[in-house]
From TrEMBL:
<keyword id="KW-0489">Methyltransferase</keyword>
<dbReference type="GO" id="GO:0010420">
    <property type="term" value="F:polyprenyldihydroxybenzoate methyltransferase activity"/>
</dbReference>
<feature type="binding site">
    <location>
        <position position="124"/>
    </location>
    <ligand>
        <name>S-adenosyl-L-methionine</name>
    </ligand>
</feature>
<protein>
    <recommendedName>
        <fullName>Ubiquinone biosynthesis O-methyltransferase</fullName>
        <ecNumber>2.1.1.222</ecNumber>
        <ecNumber>2.1.1.64</ecNumber>
    </recommendedName>
</protein>
<feature type="binding site">
    <location>
        <position position="79"/>
    </location>
    <ligand>
        <name>S-adenosyl-L-methionine</name>
    </ligand>
</feature>
<keyword id="KW-0831">Ubiquinone biosynthesis</keyword>
<feature type="binding site">
    <location>
        <position position="39"/>
    </location>
    <ligand>
        <name>S-adenosyl-L-methionine</name>
    </ligand>
</feature>
<comment type="similarity">
    <text>Belongs to the methyltransferase superfamily. UbiG/COQ3 family.</text>
</comment>
<dbReference type="InterPro" id="IPR010233">
    <property type="entry name" value="UbiG_MeTrfase"/>
</dbReference>
<dbReference type="GO" id="GO:0102208">
    <property type="term" value="F:2-polyprenyl-6-hydroxyphenol methylase activity"/>
</dbReference>
<keyword id="KW-0808">Transferase</keyword>
<dbReference type="GO" id="GO:0061542">
    <property type="term" value="F:3-demethylubiquinol 3-O-methyltransferase activity"/>
</dbReference>
<comment type="function">
    <text>O-methyltransferase that catalyzes the 2 O-methylation steps in the ubiquinone biosynthetic pathway.</text>
</comment>
<comment type="pathway">
    <text>Cofactor biosynthesis; ubiquinone biosynthesis.</text>
</comment>
<dbReference type="Pfam" id="PF13489">
    <property type="entry name" value="Methyltransf_23"/>
</dbReference>
<feature type="binding site">
    <location>
        <position position="58"/>
    </location>
    <ligand>
        <name>S-adenosyl-L-methionine</name>
    </ligand>
</feature>
<dbReference type="GO" id="GO:0032259">
    <property type="term" value="P:methylation"/>
</dbReference>
């Protein structure tokens, strides 16, 4: 892999090994299936996905991409995991989702190729897996049209997030494969906000994604101490 590509080969290998299980709602990807309706409704409520051109950065097996296309958007999902994209394409064919395509390309390369091309850009659960998250934020800003929306979700870096998102989720409850997240790569909201400002994105809304491990219920709230989302807009 070229050194200029903003990706960690170990991270790509990690998700590639699990790619065939992406669409199994009882697999390691169960949390993604559970939170997807919450994320989708939050995004759609702010950006109104119908008839929009949408880019899903780090789309993996295409769970969010597929659901946004079903809201009436024309969606392109990009990822650097060949196996995950193969699964995403196969699923789209099986369920015959319209207006949905996938490409194996980095967000930086696509930003150079198609600047200001999308009404909405989503980058969910990806920033904590790349060597240079600020570069991803900058590229997302380049890709969205002036006035367009860019959405991010990631995990806070603090003791509570370490205990719940890593120790609890990966080692005690086995909700995620062990080693899914590295504490040092987690991102504080203040750090993400600084990256957004530097990229010309205004943070319009923040939202916490909360979870009760006993009931396995997820909901949106104001607590951003563990999982959180940003809704940003590029200046017109």
């Amino acid at each position: 892999m070229s050194e200029s590509v903003n990706a960690d080969p170990a991270e790509l290998a990690k998700f590639s090994e699990l790619a065939h299980r992406w669409w199994d709602p009882e697999s390691e990807f169960r949390p993604l299936h559970q939170i997807n309706p919450l994320r989708l409704d939050w995004i759609d409520g702010l950006a109104d996905l119908s008839s929009k051109r949408v880019l899903d950065v780090g789309c993996g097996g295409g769970i969010l991409s597929d659901s946004m296309a079903r809201k009436g958007a024309t969606v392109t999902g990009i990822d650097l995991s060949t196996k995950a994209l193969r699964v995403a394409r196969l699923h789209a064919l099986e369920v015959q989702t319209a207006n949905l395509d996938f490409r194996e390309v980095s967000v930086e390369a696509l930003a150079a190729e198609q600047p200001e091309s999308f009404d909405v850009v989503t980058c969910m659960e990806m920033l904590e897996h790349v060597p240079d998250p600020a570069s991803v934020v900058q590229s997302c800003s380049r890709l969205v049209k002036p006035g367009g929306w860019v959405f991010f979700s990631t995990i806070n870096r603090n003791a509570k997030a370490f205990m719940l998102a890593i120790v609890g989720a990966e080692y005690i409850l086995n909700m995620l494969p062990r080693g899914t997240h590295e504490y040092a790569k987690l991102i504080r909201p203040s750090e993400l906000a600084a990256s957004c400002r530097a990229a010309g994105l205004d943070v319009m809304h923040t939202c916490g994604l909360e979870h009760n491990p006993l009931t396995r219920r997820y909901w949106l709230g104001n607590d951003t101490s563990v999982n959180y989302m940003f809704a940003t807009r590029r200046a017109s």
